[in-house]
Amino acid sequence: MTKQELKHLKEPDAFQRVGSQARDWLDQRQKAVAIAAVVVLLGLLGVLVARHFSARGEEQASRELGEKLKILSRPVKGQVPAEPGDTEQPFDSVQAQDQALRQALESFRKERPGTRAAVTAALPLGKAQYRLGDYDAALASFNAFLESAPADDTLRAQALEGQGYSYEAKNQYDQALASFQKLSETAKSDFLVGMGEYHRGRILALKGQKDEAAKVLSQLSAQHPNTAAARLAAERLAVLASQGVKLPPPPPAPSAPQATPEGK
Question: Span 43-76+91-149: which CATH code?
């Protein structure tokens, strides 16, 4: 065998070269896959850690809100007497209580932005601001709650009612009517059923549209009998009648579904 032939035998043939290149390619691909897997795992770990701390933050914010709302249970001078052994200093007035609540909740919402508890706090804050006569601030709080609360949150009805009251206090009756119309479409609790229509009747009367107000209130009494809203509507109708407003005949009560004979 010549030296030239020995040299060719020692050199890698085409199959060896291809195999070596394939191994190099596989090694590179495996490294890339491993790096991608690590990146994905780190991303998932980051999400889990973020959720963990987010949940802890929500729990802490919820506890803090509960502490702030204890202001509402503190006694007020001249109202409910203090419980035996109660060491909390009573508020001098309801106004002082509302001022303390407003200050506490405004600070809380600044300290815990973006939490569900901060969203919830906007509702009692708006009510306190309304009672204190700051209707613009109350509207801002009610709007903040309505913008962030879930669509199925039952507290939305209270926020809409507060929003309507605030517009009414500012003599913005058209905006108040819109809020109470939304309340009519939203209220599901036994107490608030029909309250949107009742408030709409009130506002229409304030605008001088007394015939339309009487129509709305009469329909309310027929559609939601034996409710708080129906009783309030009856009182308003009596006032309108005393002012010479001709009340419309009550609409027919909804007919009960007919029983289906057995076997059909």
Answer: 1.25.40
- For the chain, give every domain's residue range: 43-76+91-149, 180-251
Kindly report, residue by residue over 13-26, the tens digit of the pLDDT: 554 554 555 556 55
> What letter represents residue 54's amino acid?
S
Distance CA 252, CA 254 (A): 6
Spell out the alpha helix ranges (H) of the chain.
3-10, 14-69, 94-111, 116-131, 135-148, 156-169, 173-186, 195-206, 210-223, 228-242
- The DSSP result for 110-163, as a single string, is HHSTTSHHHHHHHHHHHHHHHHTT-HHHHHHHHHHHHHHS-TT-TTHHHHHHHH
Q: At what angle do helices 135-148 and 156-169 cross, to 10 degrees?
A: 150
Residue of 235 and 10 predicted with greater confidence = 235
Residue 161 structure tokens: 């009612």
What's the whole-model pTM score?
0.73
CA–CA dist 168, 199 (Å, integer): 10
